């Protein structure tokens, strides 16, 4: 924190430190996730124990047969074979997005702690493309673009509130207040970071609820910010498990 000569900080002193973002960060940190994991797990029920090499060899490993089995499992909702894999993502997003993530009992989470480290002054502000108007009632509504005046209002108000909150946070830290107490003034648009470890079955459930797609059996209306994270996770998963991803879409994006 930078202080004036009299030792009294002003809001202006904090402006240069603050960053505003409108994007989400999702990185695939590590993975053990392949279509062969699904096939390996599914075939033990009819063929007994096999090594993974045996399960992947010969005629049995033909893509046509594999695609058919995965589609059958997805269509008839035999879900457990889709659990024998793992993906770990690193996510940077506003705190309000993390609260939505953790509504899903679908993953293991480890988030950075405001008790043990000083939180960075990075705050989310919607860009001009973000829809602002909610039309309809819960369960049957849509979002539409805001007016130029509304866009400016959201941008200006968010930046001002974030700057004031960060100044208050820093003032308490400088006064010796514990980090776990000082953080209580920070807003929900503060960026945090976490690791998320998930298997493909749980990820499909998450994607079915947190993305908007044509052709889904159960339409969903996610908040745009968590959908931005879900879209990035989906892209990584589609590359890792293309046959499973294809079957998920062919069967209405319903988790098995």
Automatic annotation (TrEMBL):
Assembly information from the UniProt record: Homotetramer.
PANTHER family, per the entry: FLAVIN-DEPENDENT THYMIDYLATE SYNTHASE
Keyword tRNA-binding: no
Cofactor(s) needed by this chain: FAD
GO biological process, one term: methylation
Biological function: Catalyzes the reductive methylation of 2'-deoxyuridine-5'-monophosphate (dUMP) to 2'-deoxythymidine-5'-monophosphate (dTMP) while utilizing 5,10-methylenetetrahydrofolate (mTHF) as the methyl donor, and NADPH and FADH(2) as the reductant.
Cofactor annotation remark: Binds 4 FAD per tetramer. Each FAD binding site is formed by three monomers.
Biochemical pathway: Pyrimidine metabolism; dTTP biosynthesis
Family, similarity comment: Belongs to the thymidylate synthase ThyX family.
Protein name: Flavin-dependent thymidylate synthase
Organism: Klugiella xanthotipulae
Gene, per the UniProt record: thyX
NCBIfam families to which the protein is assigned, alphabetical: thyX (TIGR02170)
Reaction(s) catalysed (UniProt annotation): dUMP + (6R)-5,10-methylene-5,6,7,8-tetrahydrofolate + NADPH + H(+) = dTMP + (6S)-5,6,7,8-tetrahydrofolate + NADP(+)
EC main group: transferase
Record carries keyword Transferase: yes
Gene3D superfamilies according to UniProt: 3.30.1360.170
CDD domains per UniProt: ThyX
InterPro entries: Thymidylate_synthase_ThyX (IPR003669), Thymidylate_synthase_ThyX_sf (IPR036098)
UniProtKB keywords: FAD, Flavoprotein, Methyltransferase, NADP, Nucleotide biosynthesis, Transferase
UniProt EC number: 2.1.1.148
Lineage per the UniProt record: Bacteria, Bacillati, Actinomycetota, Actinomycetes, Micrococcales
